[in-house]
Amino acid sequence: MANFAKSNVPQFSVDVYQNEYLPEEGREVDAVVTVTATGGGTVGSAVTAPHLYSPGQGPSAAVVLMVDCSGSMDYPPTKMRNARDATAAAIDALRDGVRFAVVGGTHVAREVFPGGGALAVADAGTREQAKQALRKLTAGGGTAIGTWLRLADRLLAPADVAIRHGILLTDGRNEHESPQDLRAALDACAGRFTCDARGVGTDWEVKEVTAVASALLGSADIVADPAGLAADFTRMMETVMGKEVADVSLRLWTPVGTTVRFVKQVAPTVEDLTRRRTEAGPRAGDYPLGSWGDESRDYHLCVEVPPAGIGQEMLAARLSLVVPQPDGSVQNLGAQGLVRAVWTDDLVASTSINPQVAHYTGQAELSQVIQEGLDLRKVGDIDGATAKLGRAVQLASASGNADTAKLLAKVVDVVDAATGTVRLKAKVEEADEMTLETRSTKTVRVKK
Question: How many beta carbons lie within 10 A of that of residue 371, not counting itself?
């Protein structure tokens, strides 16, 4: 594996898109904020954070791979074999110097490699030893995902690294611990490491897998055919290896009398961050954005300002990006954005909806109506499901979300996409329905 020699983290930028004009006495201000990180490791990056790096390496990282070894992984036997192969492929994608471990998950969590409560350091030797340990994995037992996550946390916590990440694979429902136990484990691990979650086959619970990814700021997806696991795991690990800054937060300051209605990630997926706010001084709060490499994401925020008269204006919010430092302070990443409110009697100006805001409002609704429609379909409410999924087809068509439109077409017969006229299919493959539900939060970027 090649060593990455980098000395700087990416340069961050913040762009704000909004219609700042409000009618007299208007109070609600919306803005879409694009956060972009570019040029990691290049000379002249705006931010230098030496503590993030190991000598001669890229950003220091630690990864724990959690592999479902419950009894259902043996049905069919190819599933366990594909899981072993996929984990081996992910291990091959580890950069030299990265700390790593493998956990076997059943109704208990077991250290598969290296053992002893430690992490191994990736090199040719340890990668081969880990793959040999994988060959001994067999299926048997139940499923208790919370115990896997807690073991991953214990392994990752002592590591003196910038990026802490988990990859979790399951094929079944979390039947050997209560929903409360899983929720408690997610709450305990949130903010301590990020985690991607994958469901293989069709016997797992979508809401459990997506809850893991949501709480731990990772991705969730279905791999309906176990043969596709190796390619998916390789892509996941390559993405992790590209992360350069951990624990980025969006710091939002608002003036006296202003209320934050919501803060949502809206691209590449919809994720509501509103309740994840941590206070950061007078009238300021931090919203977690997870780990970053060279990439761009969009966020939709809405604030309620005090009403004012025609001709008045105010700063409704100030945005900045921060990362924690070892001494407990935070480092400002040098990117800032301003959200303004201006009161006008120009009816055209005050009623115009910013295109970015309109687009992502539709994308958030698209995600919501898909989930609501599928839930109604499961309980036999045909009329309700048809109405919701018809609206989803209409929104996907209008916004150019072709991938979601294709997934919807496997669940409904589309009569007229523009009006959302659809019929529920009499028979739907379980994998198709689960794929639509799992990927319902994926959005398309607005054309700026």
Answer: 19
Measure the CA–CA gap between 146 and 216, rounded to whole angstroms.
13
Give the pLDDT score at 300: 98
Rounded Cα gap, residues 295 and 293, in angstroms: 6
Q: Which structure tokens are listed for 79?
A: 């599933």
Return d(Cα 266, Cα 414) in angstroms, integer: 26
CB 129 within 8 A of CB 113: yes
**Could you tell me which of 47, 4, 6, 13 has the C-alpha nearest to residue 295?**
13
CA dihedral 113→119→121→125, nearest 10 degrees, is: -20
Contacts of 53 (CB under 8 A, 6+ apart): 6, 7, 59, 60, 162
Residue pLDDT, tens place only, 347-377: 999 999 999 999 999 999 999 999 999 999 9
Amino acid at 313: E
Length of the chain in residues, anyone? 448
DSSP one-letter code for 9: P
Tokens representing residue 91 in the block: 């291990």
